[in-house]
């Protein structure tokens, strides 16, 4: 399998490949529509592209690769760096060669990227903009609190601050309405959104964040993977005779973890089952944040269960013993 290693940047990218004679070759390609199209027409149909994931710099390459039917995998820079052992020297051509070597050695571990649908792209863009506006609103409100404690206050400054806050509130509400409309126009998004929000504690923003981060529960298709991604799933911390406390991953999505923590606080307060679970763990001497991680993990399992079964969450639902369910289904078949 011929692998093309690509080191992406904003204006251009370096390509490393092996030609028909077995000679290592490198080239530079501008990161624009015309140059990428010409480059892709020189790539054999059976070849694959392997590039480092650098955010939006690779979006055009992924889109055009899909149009011409060439597979492309965007891999983590951390994985590429730590898979090749100790290396010396750094430049764009050298990096592209290392990416190609990574793709050749770990071809079986490559995950080939698919272009998101239009609704998902629009939803991601609006959600990112909303997050930026929420941060700006938080900064203004923090400043408003500190200004209110001053001995002498500016009336003009307060008027402008209030105007900016009102404008931000209006924009955030409008964006949330747009996101809601996008979700409702897509049957798959709308169904999973409805099922996720049926779980007490999961609101519109957390459900939208989960849909975006998990690829509508398809890219991250199990609760265990989602818990690992969100950083609420501890991993063993042992070596030889040393046995430390299990730790969560430092590469977790902190935004999602924060949202899950807020949902966990709500569900512990309003759901009797979760409240009793929290109290029992407290009596066992467990730390507050450890319990909340467990509650978040439990919530994710519930969300994935309702999405898999296509049945909205019910607090009074009683799960039958699997042996009883098997016996019941067998009795129905006999009847």
TrEMBL record:
GO molecular function, one term: DNA binding
Record-annotated membrane-spanning stretches: none
UniProt keywords, alphabetically: Coiled coil
Gene Ontology biological process terms, A to Z: DNA transposition
Record flagged with keyword Signal: no
Residue ranges of coiled coil: 165-192
Keyword presence, Coiled coil: yes
Domain Transposase IS110-like N-terminal residues, every copy: 5-138
Domain Transposase IS116/IS110/IS902 C-terminal, residue spans: 194-279
PANTHER family, sorted: PUTATIVE TRANSPOSASE FOR IS117-RELATED (PTHR33055:SF3), TRANSPOSASE FOR INSERTION SEQUENCE ELEMENT IS1111A (PTHR33055)
The protein, known as: IS110 family transposase
